[in-house]
User: Fold this.
Amino acid sequence: MTLVPFDDRDGWIWWDGALVPWRDAKLHVLTHGLHYASAVFEGERAYAGNIFRLRDHTNRLINSARIMGFELPFTAEQIDAACNEVLTANGLVDAYVRPIAWRGSEMLAVAGQHTKIHVAIAAWQWPSYFGDARMAGIRMGLAEWKRPSPETAPTAAKATGLYMIGTLAKHKAEQDGFADALMLDWRGKVAEATGANVFFVMNGELHTPKPEGFLDGITRRSVMSLARAHQMKVVERVIEPAEIPLASEVFLAGTAAEVTPVAEIAGHRVTPGRVCETLLKDFDALVHKSPEEVARVVAG
Ligand code: PMP
Assistant:
């Protein structure tokens, strides 16, 4: 596999209000965000030029920063405009968009109150997160690392520090030949994948864990609206790992993963079927609608 390093590409990155050449978007090594994980980010996808649920992502970025104790120096309108500006500047219509906000280098100790807050936004092409295997269903192992309790970490924020656990779990899964890992929470209940939420089809209903210690994904909420539009009952509840064999279908939902059917999870085989196929197609249709139509569907 030929990797094109992320710091050596053509294009433009938005940084604190202006576009800078991609290769010049560099940080000083003594940056608070790097040493102490005082950073929050978003992952968005643009389809045919429209960023799916952009304002929801921007609001989550602003809220994640507040949970981490800082205010972004830009309004939601400015951040939305900047995300679109990055797409245009890079000539992208179908792309992944990555805003990030972090504490700067004015202080470098655990305390960082007087650091300047920075925001940058990049975008690049990122076809399917799970590649060609996606439609057939991915194989997921079971992570040894658990999602921390909301009393231990700011689990409602999309904060970089939380991804330390995800990277460890994902590396182990890939070493073992899996595409991803199912993570349990601090109580040992089913939580999510390393970068996406998980759904189970049980008795014709859609069951998914309550977002009590992990991100309440924007894709997750979109998929729940789509399922309800098919008169499918959606149940958010505590799910025990022992219940996994009762699921007739399993899939992941996330911005990068989109709707990804699962063929194996924590040692159990499942066959992607009609529900996976329907919701995958519906989600694909939804993301290609205008922002106004999307708002109508997800409000329903
Ligand atoms: N959980 C984790 C850990 C994630 O990184 C993501 C992707 N942001 C999700 C869930 C799904 O969230 P969304 O649908 O908003 O992308």
About this structure: Residues 12-124 form a domain with the D-amino Acid Aminotransferase; Chain A, domain 1 fold (CATH 3.30.470.10). The chain has two domains: 12-124, 131-299. The CA atoms of residues 169 and 175 lie 10 Å apart. The mean pLDDT is 96.
